[in-house]
Amino acid sequence: MRTSELERLTQLLRQLDEEYAVKHAQLSESEISITDLISRKKDLDRTLSEREGMMFAQRSTLERLQKEIREYEQDVYRLEAAQQARGESAAKLLKQSWPWNMFRGTIADLGKPCRIRNCSQYCCREQAPVCCLR
User: Fold this and answer.
1) Mean pLDDT of 98-121
2) Strand partners of residue 116
3) Quick one: which of 27, 57, 72, 114 is 20 to 30 A from 46 by CA?
């Protein structure tokens, strides 16, 4: 071989060695990145599993509460029907005055905004005596 051919091949070999070292470094960085990503995926899977479990538990609680509400509503309808069958009027009860002097209005006023001075308070709340007696 000629000297120029040998120098050219030697230069090419050095260049290939450098490229090999760069690729080897990239490979090791990729392996580290892969292990980090795998551990993050495991953490995310664990978190997802926990949250799904909580969601299913909350869903079952919600369904149970909805069932209880439906049962209570049916009891209310049944009691109202029984009351109407006995001829009792709910209006009598609603028109009764409060037994306490510090409240103004009737039982029917429960939850309605106070009409005195157009304030924003509610007559059935704890602040009603303060609001209504101003």
Assistant:
1) 55
2) none
3) 27
